Fold each of these.
Amino acid sequence: MNILGKLNRAPLSAKIGIGILAINVICVLFAPWIAPYAEGQVVGDPWAPGLVGAPEGDLAPTTLLGTDHLGRDVLSRLIFGARNSILIALLTTTISFSIGITCGLLAATMRGTVDQVLSRIVDVMMGFPTLIFALMVLAILGSSIPVLIGVIALLDATRVFRITRAVAMDLEAQDFVEVARLRGESIGWIMRRELLPNAVSPLAAEFGLRFCFVFLFIATLSFVGLGIQPPTADWGSMVRENAAAISFGILMPLFPASAIALLTVAVNMIVDWAVASTSGVRNDN
Amino acid sequence: MTIEQRVISMHPAVNREVILDIRGLEMEGFSGGSWHKIVHGLDLTLQRGEVLGLIGESGAGKSTVGLAAMGYARSGCRVTGGTVLFKGQDLLRMPAAERRRLRGLKIAYVAQSAAASFNPARRLMDQVIEVAVTRGGRSRDEAVRDAQDLFHRLALPNPETIGFRYPHEVSGGQLQRVMTAMAMACRPDIIIFDEPTTALDVTTQVEVLAAIRRIVEEFQTAAIYITHDLAVVAQLAHRIMVLRHGRLIEEAPTRVMLAHPQHEYTRSLWAVRKLAKDPEPRGDELLKVRGLLAHYGTVPVLEDVTVEVERGRTVAVVGESGSGKSTLARVITGLLKPASGEITFFGEQLPRAVKDRSKEQLRRLQMIHQSPDASLNPRHTVREVIGRPLEFYFGLSGQRREQRIVQLLDMIELSSKYLDRLPSALSGGQKQRVCIARALAANPELIICDEVTSALDQLVQEEILKLLLRLQGELSLSYLFITHDIATVKAIADRVVVMHKGRVVQQGTKAEVLTPPHPAYTKLLLSSVPDVDPDWLNRLLAARQPAVSSVAS
């Protein structure tokens, strides 16, 4: 009830964002039932136009968005791709934030040696170009989805660590943390109850952004053949595989690209609203 | 406001040209999603060479009015009515470019925090002469020579070379005077001083006040002097206006106002100065700190400090910033490990570091900080704040915890409707009360109060001090009260410890410390506290001629 009421008062941008996200979530949950064709089924010629964007005078198209470079239905692959792309991105971001926030808060609270060790490890990891680092690990461990998630999460966690540490360092210098220390509170309590609630706003904004970057990173990895392996559909690799089509005036690569863009915008609009409504630090209810 | 109250005829600058004339000023401020009135139809006139004191508590609209006198409204504020006539021209209605030409040149501003107002990356001189050169039409050499002359007049050390330093290389009091020189550089008609001495120590404040007064008189500059301290404004102003909630409460020439304040509110502005506690006889020893030595890095901050607190008594530790009084609190609470010395509390020797102390030792020793804003977690409700020590030290939960919280709220004179409020929905005084309740929740023996009233308005200060005294009586609490304010010492202390540069220079009962003969530093400190008496500064400066420089530096 409370959540519904809050939703009702949300600005239009947030409502649009929630709408788009809801459609995506439905695709994630019910892909096999919604999609007109199977994930890897060839239904026609390569890059056959669909109902959208078909040149006049063509034979009546059989699919809505046309087919890809192997003649598979783009709409079906978009729906199945949502499942892989979103779930992987969500899982990756969640893991990276859990690691980054925990280590960042730990470094800020403990300071001294703990901070030094964690920060220098992060420095080293950030010293490598991200792509090279990922390629290296994936080449050694082989490219499977769990490894992919682990590697990207770890790489992203370095950035989350930096932000969390900076925010928490500021907070840690405040008197209320000193009061907690004087009371004899444990490190865990100070991290969880004193620091974390005050660090939520900047971190939530970062979450929305990181979530979207993960798509692009997976797409990059897919391009060099270490991302999500075919025939599994994901949006990033759909763009990559079909990028050449754009030079023939075929709209097909724009569909997965728009899907990424739409979700990115949607997530950011929701995050903006969430941050604005929680950062006020006052009793509004 | 009646005609009788505006007794301009008693004023020395009588019949001079009216240089600033504010009529029916109405301003609004944006908060909580809508615009609220913050200045209600204020009238203000300023004649050439006149110093007008604007006084009131925080939120009275003093600074807002001061800025409006320059035709400026801070972001989140707007002028909705009235006129601001500067030499007959309406600042509010003239084109922005024209208004900008007047600012700095004809109307200058001296801010509260000079340290925050100077650009740290540029030398002082460049900033002091900037307006004079870019808009005043003077050559750089000429402006530099003039600035050096001003530095000299403002009694700054090394007036020839100080301008070539960076802001961080000079002290706070010097920086405030440099800023006054900057305001004076174009010989403006009006200078607006916005609490220029509030952030300074009393001994420094005296120097800055004397310098400002001298230079304003020399150049016959009109000034609006904004402050919350009646004693300060009494030294400078010809006329005082008391503001509250954006309305004029009372206006009169300084001497008339001080001798016969008309309004109850005006009288309450020096409320704390009238509080006085009768000192109690000595009691049992509760805390004894012996031979304390502490460093920050290699810099010694405490040297051989020995202090004693008795059960049910209050020890006030006084001194300027940098005297080591807050460090003393950090060492006693265990936040800073001393290099040597011992702390005996409640019959046992306390471990040096907070993490080595037992829960019981921590519970008996509580601390209240200076800024209630910073010491309350902005995301914890009053219930969580007060409930946590109950849970942590006594394992209280559910109904029993709730009852105790309400009981504690009752002790600090807040009703239970505040239970679910976040700190942002409380006033400064209420926040400090919640901090007191949090300390009381631990059933402590000793509370260290670190400047607990200095961030608050006079009236609220008085309430908080009275509350602390009442609680002391009811619960036989001991306080170690750290303050720089002598009026607070008079109000609350049984014994007094005077600190200077990390050493205890004097300690004893309140009567012993506050009555002469004093050691040199105590004398300097006590004499620097302004009296609500317009002749105080004159007398002090006359008496001090030879003595000040030798002790203060």
Amino acid sequence: MNWIEHYNYWMVILLMMLGFYTIIARGNLVKKIIGLNIFQTSVFILFISMGKIPGGVAPILRDDPTTVYSNPLPHVLILTAIVVGVATTALALALVVRINEAYGTIEEDDIHDLDTGSL
Amino acid sequence: MSVVIDILLLGLMGITAIAAIRMKNLFAAVMLTGIYSLLSALWFLILDAADVSFTEAAVGAGFSTVLMLSTLTLTRSAEKPSRHSPILPLFVVVVTGAILVYATLDMPGFADPEAPIHTHVAPHYIEKSEAEIGVPNIVTSVLASYRGFDTLGETTVIFTAGVGVLLLLGIGRRREDGDE
Amino acid sequence: MTHHFILRVITKLLIPLILLFALYVQFHGDFGPGGGFQAGVIFAAGLVLYALVFGLDTASQVIKEWVLLLLVPLGVLIYAGVGLASLYFGGNYLDYNVLAHDPVHGQHLGILLVELGVGVTVAAVLTTIFFSFAGRGQRDVNEVLKKSSGDGDAGQTS
């Protein structure tokens, strides 16, 4: 069954493209950050699904020497990426707050109009 | 069985993501993002990533949602319809997606034990970390010891992001006439 | 703030458990799932819950702003300091083997300290971020109320 083997990757691509579409097509800055979050989580899913081994268990050592462990490396990378991700999201949201204070709007079109003075 | 749960959960995540994107009300979109994060945490748990799972549950469904909501109280919660046509972004996204799908055809199948990712450093971590580090949780020993430099860098990124937010927003209530 | 009686009682019951769980995750991270990143996030979530239910003023009496601002760099300094200590004892940077008489004990000690540094920084940064957003909201609360009421009208007409 070839499609089952690649289902995860295709779902990752679907989620990634949904996030990408939100970033480039929507003008609202908070919506763009939501899109970035969806994009980010899709990358996490890609990494974790590559680390899976059939019949594997969480990578915490047990006494039984025949245990199969899933690959710990993607877990480490994604664990740190999640926390770094929320810190950078907070920075982006802080910028949105300041943009709102300076322009009175968080819509990209309105900000562009205010900048060019065509409103 | 786990394949069925995998397909169902990823499907649900796709639906939640589409709903979050279509919502014009940002409050509803933020709440849907929280649900999306919780679903991804469940999915991580099924794929043996216990550490990742509860980090995502605490961060994605808890902290990040609270932050987004506090941003909405500081700004506004209704999204204006975009003035641009969605045709061009849709075209770009479909083309990019098609290229990526084409690229996955060469990738090793899901949960293939012979995949390149499982043949290089990971066996060393799994076999030797007991003797070299002596810590049962391999994720901790890789995070703090084998890849200590990496984690130091990431801690610094978090520190920098915190300083950035402080510079942008300041902490606590300031004097009304205070200079910022 | 006299409303939400049930919420306040349940929060009071839950917060010690959340903080205790965070400490467990922090120091038991070597043996079970856990570590500095998770513990920091859970600890911050406990403090954020407190601030949400009891108000920012009460929360900033529980944990003073200057303490938070001190803890933010302290965690990174602990982490980097472990690296310097291993240099001092004759190893490479962040090589924990030399920290104790026995390499495995040294690794244990090094990991414990490094995770502590990570946990302190993550908890302090996330709490600081929340306090910044919430403080901003409280400062401009009248302005925001005005703006959002104007906003609601605009949303309905468009």
